[in-house]
Amino acid sequence: MAVTRRKKHTEPAGTRWRFYTAVSLLFGVFSVLIARAAYIQVISPDAFSLQGDMRSLRASSVAVQRGTIVDRNGRELAVSVPVETVWADPKRIADKDALADEMRWQALAETFRMNRKELVSKVDDPSKRFVYLQRKVTPSEADYVKQLKIPGVYLKTESRRYYPTGEISAHLIGLTNIDGVGQEGLELLYDEHLTGKPGKRVYRKDAQGRVVEEISQTDAQQPKQLTLSIDQRIQATAYTELKKAVRYNQATSGSAVVLDVETGEVLAMVNSPSYNPNNRADLQSFRMRNRAITDSYEPGSTMKPLVVLGALEKGRHKAGDTIDTSPGWLRIGGRRVSDPRDYGELTLSEVLEHSSNVGVTKIALDLGVDSLLQTYADAGLGSDTGIALLGESIGLLSGRRRWSDFETATLAYGYGLSATTLQLANAYNIIANGGKKRPLTIFRQESPLPAEQVFNPDNTRAVMHMLEEVVRDGTATAAQVPGYRIAGKTGTTRKTKATGGYGDEYVALFAGIAPVSDPKVVVVVTINEPGTDDYYGGTAAAPVFSKIVSQTMRLLNIPPDNLDDTQVHAAGFGGDK
C-alpha cells in the first residue's frame, strides 16, 4: 500500500519583508499626501490661494480727473486734460534684444531731449518691470513714440493740470506737481476736495484671458468743483494794469485787490511779478508769493480816514468841525510833526483832502490812543480777514500798555503798525458798507455772509463823502473815473531797514470806493519800492486804481452816477459834421 506524503508550502525568502516595505511606503506616501492636503486646506490655505489669485485675479482702476476750478461766471481757471506718458518694461526689452537697435533709441532720446546713454541706462536692468521714460509728453511726441515701435516701450494715459489764465491768476490758484498733488495756493489748500477717489474693479480670468467671474466693483468718488468769487474779466484787467504800472514805475512788486462791497467777495486779487504755472522749468520762489495777503506794510496816510471816523464815533468831533493846523508844524516830546505848508484852519474834510499830518495828529491826541487802537481793530487791522488763504499775514497792531504822544501821532498817519493790501481793502469795505464788517471770501456766495455792525452808518457815510473831496480836489485827482463819483485816499510810506530806522525806499498806496452814490466795489493798489521820482500814492498807485475801476464799472454794467462830468458824452444817432 502506497503512502502519499503532503508537501509543505514554503514562501520565497524575503517576500514578507517586501510586502511590509511596500505597504509602509504606500502608507507613508498617503500620509504625506494627507498631511500636505491638510496643511494646504486647513493650516495655511491663504498663501496658496494668493498664488492662485495672482495667476487668475485681475484688478483695474477707474481713474477720475482732478476737479476743476472756475470763476464766478463758470470760466475755467484750472482743468485736468488727458496726456500720454512713456514707460518701459526692461525685462521685455532684454528678452527682445531691443537695445541692439541703436538708431531707434537715438531717435527716442532726441525726442525727449536726452542723451542716448542716459536713456538706455534707465532700461538696462532686466530685473525691473516698470520704468518711466518721460512723463506727460505732447501729442506729437506720443505719436512719434508709437511710430518707433520699440519692443518694451509703451504709452499710458495720465492727466495733466492746465491753467488757461496762466500768470494772471497764478498766485491765487496755485499749482500741482507732476503727480497731480497740490503744491501752492488753492490747489494745495483744497487738494483733498479736488482729488476724489478712483474706482476699482476686481475680476477673474482663465488661462485664455477670458473674464470668468466678477469679484467686486467699487464706484469712483468724483472730485468736487471749486467755484470762486473771482471775475476773471476783472482779474485780467487788474493784472494787466498792475503789471504795466510796476514796469513803468520801475517798482520791485505790486498788488491789487477788488472787493464786492455788499458780499465781501474778492472779485480780483493780483500780484506782479507773477509766474506761469503751465511752465515749471524756471519757477522762482519770489515770484510765487501771494503778496496781497503775505506782505504787510505801514499803511501811511490811508489810515487818516479811520482816525476821523474814530473821532466821529466817540463824539469828540462832528463833521463840520475845524482844526487849527497853524503854523504847519507841531512839536511833541522833542519830535516834530509837520505839513508841507501852513494850511491854517481846516475842516475835517480838508484835513483828509490835504492829508494834513498836523490836523490828524491833533484829532488822534484828542481821541486817545486806546480809542484809536480800538477803531483800527474794529476796522479789521491786526487780525485775519476771514478769507482763510494759506500764508495770510495779520499785520501788526501792537497792544502794548504805554504809548507816548509822539507814538500816538505816528499811529494817526499810518506808522507803527502794518497791514496787508487785503486788510486795507477790508477796512475801506467796512466804510463803504455803512460800518458793517463781514468776513471776506474767495468763494462765490449765493447770499452775503453775516455781518457785524461796528461803526455808525451816518459816520461812515460822512467819512466817505470826505474821501470824495480827496479825489475831487485833493491829493488823489489821478484816481478820478469819468462819469463816476469816487472816494479814496492816498498813502506814501518809507520802508524800514533791516538794521533799524527808515531807508530811501517807499511804498505807494491808494484805497478807494466806487461809485459813492451806491458803493459797489473797493479797490486797493500797492506799488512796492518805485524806482522813479514819482513814488507817491497819488502818482504811482492812484492812476492804476482809475484804470481798474473804469473797466470794472463797464464789466459789471454799473450806470454812471456823475452825469455832470463833462468827459461823459451820451450816445446818440448821427452827430456833428
From TrEMBL:
InterPro entries: Beta-lactam/transpept, Beta-lactam/transpept-like, FtsI_transpept, PBP_dimer, PBP_dimer_sf, PCN-bd_Tpept. Its EC number is 3.4.16.4. Residues 254-549 form the Penicillin-binding protein transpeptidase domain. It is found in: Membrane. One of its GO terms (molecular function) is penicillin binding. Its main location: membrane. It comes from Idiomarina rhizosphaerae. Pathway: Cell wall biogenesis; peptidoglycan biosynthesis. This is Peptidoglycan D,D-transpeptidase FtsI.
